[in-house]
Amino acid sequence: MNTQTLDDLKFVSEVRKQMDENQLMLSYRGEMSQEIVMALLNLTENKLNQTSFDTSIKTRVFGVMVECLQNITKHSDKGSHERSNVFMIGFSDQGYMIYSGNVIRTEKVDELRNKITRINTMTEEELKDFYKYWIKNEALSGKSGAGLGLIHIARKTGNPLEFDFEQVDNDHYFFSLRTLVDH
Fold first, then answer.
1. How far does CA 93 lie from the centroid of its chain?
2. CA-CA distance, 159 to 142, in Å (whole number)?
3. Consecutive H or E run containing 49
4. How far apart are CA 12 and CA 29, in angstroms?
5. Taking a C-beta distance cutoff of 8 angstroms, is the pair 103, 130 a contact?
6. Could you tell me the residue ranges of all domains in the chain?
7. pTM recorded for the entire structure
8. Which of 16, 19, 66, 153 is most open to solvent, judged by the fewest CB atoms within 10 Å of its CB?
9. pLDDT at residue 96 is higher than 90
10. Residue 107 to residue 7: CA distance in whole angstroms
11. What is the C-alpha to C-alpha distance for residues 129 and 172, in angstroms, rounded to an integer?
């Protein structure tokens, strides 16, 4: 075997180790079409049905997953970066970890950071009121944005939304989101 082949095989082994350490039950990277979203939902549903957790936990995981996948499909920058979309579900001692990531335009970073920071500082009651406000004012006005989905995720999980932005180039950032659904 040549050096490149050995390096490739070591890479596969390292990815497997990372997946084991993070107890990933599903990992996907690539374009996000309606067909792929449906396949990911079906795979996750089948895996969740194999667990002994009650239906309310499975429902919350599924609901958060749907919101994350919708955020990717609706808010990713279309074009050459679509193959960079990422979605993963893992299991930890605390519960299910749901990871998502996609490339967004640079001009959207500050607005998204501010929304998530605001959401993370709200109480459960404030989130409920903000959700109602958003539906009445922002959604009905036709404004686009990830606000409603992020509010929904925060309400479903009761946990802070953990996020990061990594610059890809002058016009794009990779937005990563991690959410925890307690069990």
1. 19
2. 28
3. helix 34-49
4. 15
5. no
6. 3-182
7. 0.87
8. 16
9. yes
10. 38
11. 33
- Residue 86, beta-bridge partner list: 29, 101
99, 88 Cβ separation under 8 angstroms: yes
Contact status, residue 120 vs residue 130, Cβ threshold 8 Å: no
Q: Which pLDDT value is given to residue 141?
A: 59
- Cβ of 87: how many Cβ atoms within 10 Å? 23
Alpha helices, H only, 50-146:
55-75, 109-121, 124-133
Beta carbons of 179 and 171 less than 8 angstroms apart = no
For the CA atoms of 161, 61, 180, 137, what is the dihedral angle to 10 degrees? 20
The better pLDDT of the pair 177, 75 is held by 177
Are 88 and 24 a contacting pair, CB within 8 Å? yes
- Summarize pLDDT for 154-167 with one digit per residue, the tens: 999 999 999 999 99
Instruction: Considering the domain delimited by 3-182, tell me its CATH architecture.
Output: 2-Layer Sandwich (3.30)
Residue 142 has pLDDT above 60, yes or no: no
Q: Which two tokens stand for residue 13?
A: 């082994």
